[in-house]
TrEMBL record:
Name this polypeptide is given: ATP synthase subunit I
InterPro entries hit by this protein: ATP_synth_I, ATP_synth_I_Bacilli
Parts of the chain that traverse the membrane: 12-28, 34-53, 97-117
Membrane topology summary: Multi-pass membrane protein
Location (main, coarse): membrane
Keywords, sorted A to Z: Cell membrane, Membrane, Transmembrane, Transmembrane helix
Compartments where found: Cell membrane
Record PANTHER family: ATP SYNTHASE PROTEIN I (PTHR40035:SF1)
Organism: Cytobacillus mangrovibacter
Length: 124
């Protein structure tokens, strides 16, 4: 599983880079609600990525030991996404709903880009 952890660390760095860009955008532009929505969505997306990595590691360990595994935490990840959308609907002036949803998808976009970059560099 060391490769699995290094992949997560690399993806986490990319997401932190995006979050820092979003914070700069929030601080220095007039599109504060859009960038705040991106910050909220991306933060919860990073949390969801961390959750799935942790649950996958536990799942792999349980399979090796021959134990049963309850779930991979789908309900928890859906609940965090629902929380973000509910916050955006409750505070529409502060949080832009579309940017919150886009922020929630950020980890999946980062995973795909990371996969293509790694497969490109491994072919060389």
């Amino acid at each position: 599983m060391p490769e699995f952890k290094t992949t997560f660390v690399r993806q986490r760095k990319y997401i932190f880079l995006l979050l820092s860009i979003y914070v700069l955008g929030w601080g220095f532009t007039s599109y504060q609600s859009i960038f705040l929505g991106l910050i909220l969505g991306t933060s919860l997306s990073l949390f969801n990525l961390w959750l799935i990595v942790r649950k996958t590691q536990r799942f792999g360990d349980a399979v090796v030991r021959g134990e049963k595994v309850r779930s991979l935490g789908t309900i928890t990840r859906m609940a965090s996404a629902l929380l973000a959308v509910m916050l955006a609907l409750e505070y529409p002036k502060e949080l832009h709903l579309v940017s919150v949803v886009f922020g929630l998808m950020t980890s999946y976009i980062v995973i795909m880009i990371d996969y293509f970059l790694q497969s490109f560099y491994l072919r060389k």
